[in-house]
Amino acid sequence: MSARLADLPLRDDLRGRTPYGAPQLPHAAQLNVNENPYGPSPDLLDDLAAAVRAAAVTLNRYPDREAVALRQDLAGYLSESTGVALTTEQLWAANGSNEVLQHVCQAFGGPGRTALTFEPSYSMHPLIATGTGMRHVGVPRAADFGVTADAAVAAVREHTPAVTFLTTPNNPTGTVTGLDVVAAVYDATDGILVVDEAYAEFGRGRGYVSAVTLLRGRPRLLVSRTMSKAFALAGARLGYLAADPAVVDALRLVRLPYHLSAVTQAVARTALVHRAELLGTVDAVAAERDRLVAGVRALGVGVVPTLSNFFLFGPFGDPRRVWQDLLDDGVLVRDLSGPTLPGLLRVNAGTPDEGDRFLAALAAAVARQPPAGSAAEISPPPGAAATPPVPGTIGATAGAAAGIPAAVAADGGTQA
């Protein structure tokens, strides 16, 4: 007879928790986990196959433990895309940005230390923090889902975190936190500040400025990225960060031996060679996102302005019914509704065909259940505090639906 989970000597802080995850239904238009819908081209497939074959010749040996060549390539890409000269010693890579962030919490967190997030945000941040023995504190964002320097500094001073997470563009809201906030939080804390930029490439050409530009002279600032989104490599699991070389030395203390396989390193390096092609899909995804936003608004449904490849829409009086109606029509989106994000669903941009299918399914669902509000854009309720625009960026200008508190999201979505 099999044992029950409750019968096992599980850690007390893990009892009652549920595993992280989102539905995976291969027969639906999968628009629920913020994936890039464009697979590798024939030329890239040929080069990937050749790279994997070359790596396979020595699979009887351990891979390069330091992944030096890969980190050198990542430094070249980030230097090129941000205008900041970075060295190999400033880059760290692991199996998805989740493992990168786990290394951060293992090295700089642990029992008796606090991790601070601004909610709603990426739901893996508190899970990684608590999984490494940290205490998690989630501070509500403003009514428009933004973060102001004053509010963030006050939270840091109150909770004195060992690790603070700022996600920009933020998941699940798509809103941007300005560099003035990043700099203010860094100055206010003695701990580590992680700026999670998993979706940064989707701000290309729209004024997004990376926190990589703030690294110089800030040894406790870390900027994490992933190849899952813009590079369309979610299946390869490769995340990375840029930081002071001393931070990379600290992460070496907690990484598992040979944590990045030779195949993973080969695939990631090949994708970086093809980055012009792969990043070309970012523009297509961004254009499709903008088309979907316009189409959803045309149906009288509110939208939170976004600088990512996804957006929140609603609110609906019965969001679970809308989610099911969409699924019945072959479209899978993310249901984020709950006490903290009542009535809201999230969809990511896919191919134009998937987008057409989504808009048609949503039109049918709205005909059966009109949204619980008539505004074409979700806005802060009268009198609610909102974050000011961020100079030089789209900024944190998204709004919260009337009556929607900017608090902890029940489900922040998958990104790494």
Overall description:
With 416 residues, the chain is of the alpha/beta class. The chain is globular. It starts with 28 loop residues before the first strand and ends in a 48-residue tail after the last helix. The chain has eleven helices and 13 strands.
Major sheet attributes: 7 strands, mixed
> How many helical elements?
11
Share of helix among residues?
25-40%
Order of helices and strands: EHHEHEHEHEHEEEHHHEEHEEEH
Q: What's the arrangement of strands in the largest beta sheet? A: 2-8-7-6-5-3-4
Number of strands: 13
Distance between the termini: 37 Å
Question: How would you briefly describe this protein structure?
Answer:
Helices cover 34% and strands 13% of the residues.
